[in-house]
Design brief:
This protein is of the alpha+beta class and 430 residues long. It is built from 11 helices and 21 strands. The chain has an 8-stranded mixed beta sheet, with helices on both faces. The chain has a 6-stranded mixed beta sheet with strand order 10-4-3-14-21-20, with helices on both faces. Strands 11-12-13 form a 3-stranded antiparallel beta sheet, with no helix packed on it. Strand 16 and strand 17 form a beta hairpin. Helix 2 crosses helix 10 and helix 3 packs across helix 10. The chain is globular, with a radius of gyration of 22 Å. 49% of the residues are buried. It binds pyrrole-2-carboxylate.
Length: 430
């Protein structure tokens, strides 16, 4: 049985009722209200672990801490609402076709966790493994796709380079002709890749963490981190102070500022990343399409909208405003790939914040301040890593040992010179 027993209780904690066809039928018949998926609590004076950031990383960490390690006296703090940051602003692409063995192994574990997540959380996260295509428009691009395919295969991840005819068979609307302005020479095809309902992932983890006794505190801004003799003592928040020996920085966008509160410097620069969604149309696009050369990625949701994104804006900023320049560039590039989309209308655009590191890999693990841990530096690839980050960060807290999957991503790699260069596998050129 997953996290919820029949009567909704486990470890003496009363959790939500199980979602099922039967409970849907019963609620429909009786008109009774559904229990809230997670509850509000008074802020306690102390917690065993305080996690800053109520996105997929922070909530997954809390969930695995409680479920796998029995550490449930945990607070997740968010200055806004659950999933209101990067977790609600990304384009929900899941894949593990990275360039380095370390990256491939890490993201592959995340894909595996995502594959079982709906059953694990008793929450439909709508993971659609429709395949993922990264286009190559020149010899250099094609070489990188071959490189990635070989590393992927060595790590037992399903990826291969395919040619224009096979691309056309997968995406009939794509202009794969020799006369395309940016001719398509081939693509890295990654069948396990796909898209997911990102809100559902966040809500599912929040519900699961709550069921195991974790306290989720929304509208609770961290204003300081207390450090004495190089050890974490607690956090200050807009709702009061909390004593704790363990703080995890699971934020995106403001992660270097939060680390700065503990006086830990991070090699991170923060850039906005914009995205947009169209009106819904009949399903015609199965795989996710990415073109690094054209700085664009496209997927079609189950509701029929096309979701587009580009590279990060070319300046550091904490602004999350959309711009007309982005839309102009995006529209031009999308039409170079799929000219028949000329009449599509955009519904909405938005932006999120991306914490870029010098090597395009995250920063995870311990820091020079005892008890201050980080799960940050997620650039444009954080959402897909949520489950594995939660699993490994929870293991680190519970055992005091850095799990092998994240050994390569430590902060000390920047002084040791052991970078994990993933720029060639980032979705778009930056
Ligand atoms: O890394 O797959 C990715 C991605 C998609 C959109 C932004 N990053």
């Amino acid at each position: 049985m997953g996290i919820f027993s029949r009567n909704g209780s486990e470890n003496g904690h009363r959790g939500p009722a199980r979602y099922s066809a039967f409970s849907l039928f019963r609620h429909g018949l009786t008109g009774s209200d559904w229990q809230p998926a997670w509850r509000s609590h008074d802020l306690e004076d102390s917690y065993d672990v305080v996690i800053i950031g109520g996105g997929v990383h922070g909530l997954a960490t809390a969930y695995y801490l409680a479920k796998e390690h029995g550490i449930s006296h945990v607070a997740v703090l968010d200055k806004g609402y659950v999933g209101g940051g990067g977790s609600g602003r990304n384009t929900a692409i899941i894949r593990s076709n990275y360039l380095t063995p370390e990256g491939v192994r890490f993201y592959d574990r995340s894909v595996k966790l995502y594959e079982n997540l709906a059953a694990e959380l008793n929450f439909n996260v709508m993971f659609a493994q429709r395949g993922h295509l990264t286009l190559a428009h020149n010899d250099g691009g094609l070489r990188t796709m071959h490189w990635r395919a070989e590393v992927n295969k060595l790590e037992s991840v399903d990826s291969e380079v395919i040619g224009p005819d096979e691309i056309k068979a997968l995406v009939p609307f794509m202009d794969t002709s020799n006369s395309a302005r940016y001719q398509i020479l081939g693509a890295l095809y990654h069948p396990p890749g796909g898209i997911i309902r990102h809100d559902a992932v966040v809500w599912g983890y929040a519900r699961g963490a709550d069921a195991h006794g974790v306290h989720i505190h929304q509208n609770t801004e961290v204003t300081g981190i207390e450090v004495k003799n190089n050890r974490v003592q607690g956090v200050k928040t807009s709702r009061g102070d909390i004593k704790t020996n363990t703080v995890i920085n699971s934020t995106a966008g403001w992660s270097s500022l939060i680390s700065g509160m503990a006086r830990v410097r991070m090699p991170i620069s923060t850039f906005p990343l914009q995205a947009a969604v169209t009106e819904p149309v009949r399903p015609f696009l199965d795989p996710v399409i990415v073109s690094g050369t054209l700085h664009v990625y496209v997927s079609q949701t189950d509701r029929g909208e096309l979701v587009f994104g580009a590279s990060v804006d070319p300046f550091t900023s904490y602004s999350m405003r959309g711009s007309l320049e982005f839309l102009e560039g995006l529209a031009g590039h999308v039409l170079e790939l799929m000219p028949s989309l000329a009449k599509m209308r955009l519904l909405r655009q938005w932006a999120g914040l991306c914490d870029m590191t010098p090597d395009y890999s995250p920063i995870m693990g311990t820091t020079p301040v005892t008890g201050f841990l980080v799960d940050v530096g997620w650039g444009t690839y954080g959402f897909k890593a949520g489950p594995v980050s939660g699993e490994t960060m929870a293991e680190l807290v519970a055992t005091g040992e850095t799990p092998r999957l994240i050994e390569a991503f430590g902060l000390d790699r920047f002084s040791a010179g052991t970078l994990v260069g993933e720029k060639g596998a980032a979705s778009v050129g930056h």
